[in-house]
Design goal:
The protein is an alpha+beta fold. It is built from 12 helices and 18 strands. Strands 10, 11, 12, 13, 14, 15, 16, 17 and 18 form a 9-stranded antiparallel beta sheet that branches. The protein has a 5-stranded parallel beta sheet with strand order 3-2-1-4-5, with helices on one face. A 4-stranded antiparallel beta sheet has the order 6-9-7-8, with helices on both faces.
Length: 376
Amino acid sequence: MGIVGGGQLARMSAAPAAALGIDFRVLASAPDESAAQVIRDVVIGRHDDIDALRRLAQGCAVVTFDHEHVPPAHLEQLEAMGVAVRPGPAALFHAQDKVHMRQALTSIGVPCPRWRVVEALDHAEEFADVVGWPVVLKTSRGGYDGRGVWVVAGAQEAADVLSIPLAAGAQWLAEERIDFVQELSAQVARSPHDQAVAYPVVRTVQANGICSEVVAPAPGLAAERAVEAQELALRIARDLNVTGMLAVELFDDGSRLFVNELAMRPHNSGHWTIEGARTSQFENHLRAVLDLPLGSPAPVAPYAVMVNILGGDVPDLYSAYRHVLARDPGVKVHLYGKQVRPGRKVGHVTVLGEDLDDLLARGRHAADYFAGVIDE
């Protein structure tokens, strides 16, 4: 099988692929990209270069993704070669274009923040007259980890954002700002013959648009609300014909759930599953796209806490290993082989156990030490 993208998601897919006996090839942008450091069979090229995609797909039974940015027309050409593309171009487009996603989710009755496409400032002002300021403005294509998203408090701020040039094919999307009490993520895996499994719903915490930590399962979430989130994710996967992992990011306002974003691949909110579930999101993504029976998503401990390591003042992350692992042998560390830049996700740590406050303290301490926030 081939995977488009050489980032950390492809890198973390390598171990379960080896365990399943899958021949694994990756399309990376450079020989030192995260996944290319640990995978033997690497094609160097861009994800929007059809010739590079053809080289990746040659001899592959299935092509899947570590990101959603491949042009749909290119994927249709791969399908014409007889290669299974999973998720398919039609499904993947929902994660590539936020307007398309909102239209599709609204049409199938999935609860979303109120939204509209805006082409000029007066459209944004009309929308704000209905939902109230502040309003969330998004580019329909190309944004991730907080990029391409602005919360604007009034007309002048909206005018400043709308003056930013859009990428080709993109539109401006205005959304109601939900006053949420927590952010959740519901992950499911679905195979071509319609087998599906749902992971425990998790709580995510964002800092500057980037996920900083995940708690599985979401503490204090009522059982009926968790089931509602899982059912939403399973319905979206079925109705949008998603194959592989699907992450549904949700706002919980205390009484209702609203779908914020979709990701059709393994997702940061599921990294805890490597140690914390009987079958990780990476293994179940591989199983799903290859149409193998799916593995159990059941947790192996009462709680799992995952904390992202963000780039800071320590350029050599491996120098922190001795302290972190000696201080807390129960911490599991994953480093992505990336060059350290301030605020960049360069790894994560996971801890499992029963005492949530203790797990949060341990996970945050380890991540902060790797980032240079603390030195003891």
